[in-house]
Amino acid sequence: MSKTAMDLVQAAKAIITEISPQQANKMLSEGTLALDVREAQEHEAGHIANDHHIPRGILEFKIDQYSEFQNKQNSIIVYCKSGGRSALAVATLQQFGFSNVYSLAGGFDEWEKFNKPL
User: Fold this and answer.
1) What are the strands, taking DSSP E only, across the chain?
2) I need a labelling partner for 81 at 20 to 30 A (CA). Which of 59, 97, 113, 117 fits?
3) Domain boundaries, the chain
4) Is 50 exposed, middle or buried (0-12, 13-18, 19+ CB in 10 A)?
């Protein structure tokens, strides 16, 4: 039986931790890294302050090129537009050995609703 993209997202969400915009805001103020996995034009239209940008499509090939992500114990919040790509990205990062990675529930759309700093 073949799977859909949403099946893959649901499977990822079953094994990752999602956090709210409020939790993310607190964690970011304490030094957690933000990783935007949206496409370049989405990132350019608005993003979380001081984030890092690696599109989901090349994450596996580029993550090790950033010094900020060399320590796999660092706390990282991954986000996309609505939470699907970030869930997949967090599942991938866990497979790569990252232990403190979280997906922003509802993505950047939810972040904007709470008027968090951009």
Assistant:
1) 18-19, 33-36, 52-53, 76-79, 101-104
2) 97
3) 5-113
4) exposed
CATH superfamily of 5-113: Rhodanese-like domain (3.40.250.10)
- Would you call 13 a catalytic residue per the annotation? no
Tally of CB atoms within 10 A around 118? 11
Q: What is the DSSP secondary structure assignment for residue 81, as one 8-state letter?
A: S
Contact 12, 102 (CB under 8 A): no
CB 108 within 8 A of CB 47: yes
Residue 108 has pLDDT above 70, yes or no: yes
Task: Supply the pLDDT for residue 114.
Answer: 84
- pLDDT tens, position by position, 49-73: 999 999 999 999 999 999 999 999 9
Could you tell me the pTM of the whole model? 0.93
